[in-house]
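Project outcomes to date are best conveyed with an example. Our students and postdoctoral researchers have been running inverse folding experiments weekly, and each run begins with a structure described purely in tokens. The record below, which covers 346 residues, was selected by the lab manager from last quarter's runs and is presented without edits.
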């Protein structure tokens, strides 16, 4: 049976290429380098999101077009682009990210990673194809702390992975749209997978884009300078919409490397008008707020998974004057009035 290539979503802009099999033994990959892989064994990841933005099952012997990248996901795994050639590689993310898993959450340890063999690299003009800014009309924009038009940026932060920050961003966009304002959503950091941006778009955002729009398999282990240039490129991509608000989400938690770098960056924070904070439990919410206040960042509201429990809402509200809000609050048109006069800095 002839094997067809399954093209992962991060490689959707890879056009004509030749397969260089010799490089699989000598080339040291960097994030974004595109390779052709054969599935050895299916374990944790049994599906891959392809260029049609649909999740497809994978099986031993399948050939996949994927990109090297890093991943940091506290409830799943940590994986890195290998520093040398290996006999086998691992699927790090369902959007098509490949690397070497360093460790996994205990609930996945027995299953182990989905294992791959590198057949060769996808090349054009004798160069390994890299997904960064591939197929774009322009290369990366230089960061200028420039927000398009009169748009105001609202930053959605969370205490950890799965704290509810994407849901918060989605319902916030829903409320902004209901108030007859135009809103764009940007996911600045994370690992490629279109679930979050599709969720926020379905909630009501007029536009939803993420780092993968410019070919980043993930943003883990990038320099601050690279993230700021990416941020400017994403901001500029909203220009045609001319939004009133841009809701920007940063993945993972306050202690994560890229999140902390961005919050410590005066240049990045100079673009931010408001901050909303999400967490999964009451003690985490209070710790997170304390961390933000130490950085002189005052969120206008606290939300997140913990607000599903009225008791946890009461616990948090008893220890802070920052209002705790639920999803029902966020989607109300009148909620926009709540943060229009709030100042981010203490």
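After processing, the design step wrote out the following sequence:
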């Amino acid at each position: 049976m002839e094997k067809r290539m399954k093209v992962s979503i991060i490689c959707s802009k890879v056009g004509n290429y030749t397969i260089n099999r010799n490089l699989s033994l000598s080339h040291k990959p960097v994030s974004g380098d595109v390779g052709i892989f054969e599935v050895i064994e299916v374990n944790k990841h049994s599906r891959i999101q392809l260029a049609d933005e649909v999740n497809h099952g994978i099986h031993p012997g399948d050939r996949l077009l994927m990109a090297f990248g890093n991943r940091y996901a506290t409830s799943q795994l940590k994986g890195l682009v290998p520093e040398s050639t290996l006999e086998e590689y691992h699927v790090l993310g369902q959007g098509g990210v490949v690397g070497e898993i360093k460790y996994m959450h205990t609930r996945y340890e027995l299953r182990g990673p989905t294992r791959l063999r590198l057949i060769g690299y996808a090349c054009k003009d004798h160069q390994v194809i890299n997904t960064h800014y591939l197929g774009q009309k322009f290369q990366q924009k230089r960061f200028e702390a420039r927000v398009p038009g009169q748009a105001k940026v609202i930053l959605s932060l969370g205490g950890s992975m799965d704290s509810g920050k994407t849901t918060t961003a989605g319902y916030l966009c829903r409320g902004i749209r209901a108030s007859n304002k135009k809103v764009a959503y940007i996911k600045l950091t994370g690992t490629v997978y279109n679930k979050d941006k599709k969720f926020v778009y379905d909630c009501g955002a007029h536009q939803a884009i993420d780092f993968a729009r410019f070919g980043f398999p993930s943003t883990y282990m990038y320099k601050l300078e690279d993230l700021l240039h990416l941020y400017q490129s994403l901001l500029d991509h909203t220009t045609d919409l001319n939004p009133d608000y841009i809701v920007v989400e940063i993945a993972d938690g306050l202690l994560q490397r890229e999140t902390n770098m961005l919050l410590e960056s005066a240049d990045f924070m100079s673009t931010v008008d408001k901050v909303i904070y999400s967490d999964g439990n009451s003690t985490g919410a209070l710790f997170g707020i304390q961390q933000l206040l130490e950085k002189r960042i005052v969120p206008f509201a606290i939300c997140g998974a913990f607000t599903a429990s009225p008791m946890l809402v009461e616990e948090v509200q008893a220890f802070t004057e920052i209002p705790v809000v639920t999803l029902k609050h966020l989607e109300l048109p009148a909620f926009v009035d709540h943060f229009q006069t709030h100042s981010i800095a203490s």
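The longest strand covers residues 115-124. The domain at 152-340 is CATH 3.40.50.300 (Rossmann fold). The training component of this project remains on track.
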